[in-house]
Specification:
single chain; alpha+beta; Serine Threonine Protein Phosphatase 5, Tetratricopeptide repeat; 5-stranded mixed sheet; 23 helices; globular
Length: 639
């Protein structure tokens, strides 16, 4: 599973050096911008260049310069500068991970470049749109479409400068799609282009090597064998990651160094070269912490924890896992809080602006009506009866039309205001939905940490190492899935299966499970909200099966009929009544927060998208009325 840092770091390929290497040029641009005050196309270019280079230093400041560029280009009718201002605005939003804003500005830039017949600039926009879609698995096909558009234009124009960046993005996309053949093919293609046409582009070189390193880390030996690879995949990974690290050291890129030290730690961990793994993971953690790269720090911490577990240092492993959970929880909560604040600020600004515009328009139109009425009275007193009747009828008709237009205009503005309020409420609900999802993940991870701690206490090294390996895979799945509003049913089942494997390991012979999937289901087509089923499975295990002396069996079944996905979670446990009795008697009983959070998520989803997801819980009994378990039925409408 790809790390969060890799997803953001590799996807956006441009042809400039980053961070420290950019700062001298940026400083020079800033000084020139302060001295050059003439409002012309030269100043528009200065503002756009600053906005573009700020993406590597401070993208939020870049947005401010892009806004100035848009305003000035509009004022002086510089269409070329305006298109680029929209483009760099989209680039800065991409660096801030605000995908919807990114796409909004990039699509505007694309339309302008197309109308201006500037194919190479249009291709750069398409490449960036593809990069924006790349981290989101539900938009892989969209990413592929835009990257292919960019590549076709570059090849038609004979452009060798920007073509490699699009091919590299396409290689990264195929890697994320787990398509080993196309991924390695495109990596080799872009490496050949780099060596032939742009050998001085060190950033491109580093990203190619980092991408190849990730490919050999993530692809299985079996898949690599299908394309004729005969070497050791980890030796190849070390080779490419070390080359990437050498280039990033040359560039002075702190985030590049942190990411590749983390990669080396991961590889050496897989090779059981624990001292080297720990050395590189700790180095990655130090660089990330010093540079404020929180997501990279979290990735490095997971490697450190796995190394400690593999070497039997369970207390240290558990301590670093807790650090990871706290850090990840903070990252998710901060992100959603910023989203809510930004939505509210934008809404309040729009509302005040609209209100002022509304009041001014109303005052202006009332003044116009008053003037018309005074004029009508003057004409009445000074004109003849016939003229008065004719003119009065004309003025009445015109007045009537103006009043009707005024009413229609006011109604239109009220409707637009109501639409903006509805949109704001939807955004708040969407942010709240993301917040609920981020609350579930730490709760879910906390339950897994308890299991690891138990093995550490028992000093069972083999079991602890195996469990920790599954936990790391599961944690990456959960966190990756939590970034998307919807995931494929295949992804949800994979996460669920891994979770039940872990619980079966922990409870040994007390837990037996089965996943039953109907033959007519397209697991890669059907999409559902992530982490929707696991809380009910967890509840069945903890409250239904574990209170039984000999445990029991859990069945999770998937059926699809008449555009409706039905998921049933059935256990042959003690039943809800007995579980409630046992829970009331235990001061340390396991509390299932996930159930209540899932219920809130379903209500929000139904409200936002006008759907009708539902959950029914049935108590199962035998012929004598004795409890024989519980069945949960989840119905999800699908398109």
């Amino acid at each position: 599973m790809i790390s969060r840092f890799t997803a953001t770091f590799l996807l956006f390929c441009v042809c400039f050096k980053i961070t420290q290497a950019q700062e001298p040029e940026l400083d020079s641009l800033l000084k020139t911008e302060q001295q050059y005050v003439k409002e012309d196309t030269i100043r528009v270019k200065l503002l756009n260049d600053i906005a573009f280079f700020q993406q590597y230093v401070d993208p939020a400041k870049g947005l401010l310069y892009a806004e100035k560029g848009i305003a000035l280009a509009t004022k002086i009718n510089d269409q070329s500068g305006l298109a680029r201002a929209y483009y760099v605005m989209g680039v800065d939003y991409l660096r801030l991970d605000q995908v919807s804003k990114t796409l909004e500005y990039l699509q505007t830039a694309a339309k302008m470049y197309e109308s201006q017949k500037r194919p190479v600039d249009l291709a750069r926009v398409y490449n960036t749109i593809g990069a924006a879609y790349l981290p989101h698995n539900e938009h892989y096909q969209d990413a592929l479409v835009y990257l292919d558009k960019a590549i076709d234009i570059y090849k038609a124009q004979g452009d060798k400068q920007y073509l490699p960046s699009s091919i590299l993005n396409k290689a990264l996309l195929y890697k994320r799609m787990d398509s080993v053949g196309p991924a390695i093919q495109h990596f080799n293609e872009v490496l050949a282009l780099f060596r032939q046409y742009t050998p001085a582009n060190k950033q491109l070189e580093a990203r190619i090597y980092s991408g190849l390193g990730d490919a050999y880390i993530e692809f299985s030996e079996a898949k690599l064998r299908t394309i004729g690879f005969t070497g050791n995949k980890y030796d190849s990974a070390v080779y490419y990651v070390q080359k990437a690290l050498d280039v990033f050291n040359e560039l002075g890129s702190e985030d590049g160094k942190a990411g590749n030290h983390r990669r080396l730690g991961t590889i050496y961990l897989k090779q059981k070269k624990y001292p080297l793994a720990l050395q590189n993971a700790i180095r990655a953690n130090e660089i990330a912490r010093h540079g404020g790269f929180l997501s990279m720090e979290a990735d490095a911490i997971t490697v450190i924890s796995e190394v400690y577990a593999a070497t039997g240092r369970y207390d240290s492993a558990f301590a670093y896992l807790k650090k990871y959970v706290v850090l990840n929880d903070s990252l998710l909560n901060d992100e959603k809080e910023r989203e809510l604040i930004q939505n509210e600020m934008q809404y309040n600004f729009d509302k005040k602006e609209d209100s002022l515009h509304f009041q001014n328009a109303l005052l202006s139109k009332n003044n116009a009506l008053n003037k018309l009425q005074l004029r009508q009275q003057w004409l009445y007193s000074g004109g003849a009866l016939v003229l008065l009747l004719g003119l009065g009828g004309f003025l009445y008709y015109r007045n009537r039309n103006k009043q009707v237009k005024l009413v229609l205009q006011l109604e239109k503005e009220r409707a637009e205001q109501k639409q903006r309020e509805s949109e704001f409420e939807r955004k708040v609900s969407d942010a709240a939905l993301h917040s609920l999802r981020s609350q579930m993940n730490p709760h879910f991870i906390f339950n897994c940490l308890n299991s690891i701690k138990l093995y550490a206490v028992e000093n069972n090294q083999e079991a602890a190492t195996g469990y920790l390996g599954k936990f790391s895979r599961l944690m990456r799945l959960v966190l990756e899935n939590s970034k998307s509003d919807r995931i494929t049913l295949q992804q949800e089942v994979e996460t669920l299966r891994l979770y039940m494997e872990m619980e079966a390991m922990r409870f040994k012979d007390k837990l037996h499970y089965k996943i039953d999937i109907a033959d007519n289901m397209d697991m890669d087509y059907i999409e559902i909200p992530p982490m929707l089923i696991q809380p009910y499975v967890e509840n069945a295990i903890w409250h239904g099966l574990m209170p039984k002396e000999n445990g029991g069996t859990l069945l999770v079944a998937f059926r699809c009929e008449d555009n409706n996905l039905q998921i049933t979670v059935t256990d042959n446990g003690v039943g809800r009544i007995k579980a409630a009795e046992l829970k009331s008697k235990s001061a340390t009983a396991h509390r299932s927060f996930g159930m209540s959070i899932t219920h809130e998520r379903m209500e929000l989803i139904n409200q936002m998208y006008n759907t009708n997801m539902s959950v029914i819980v049935n108590d199962l009994h035998d012929e004598q009325g004795n409890a024989t378990g519980t069945q949960v039925i989840i119905d999800i409408p699908i398109d």
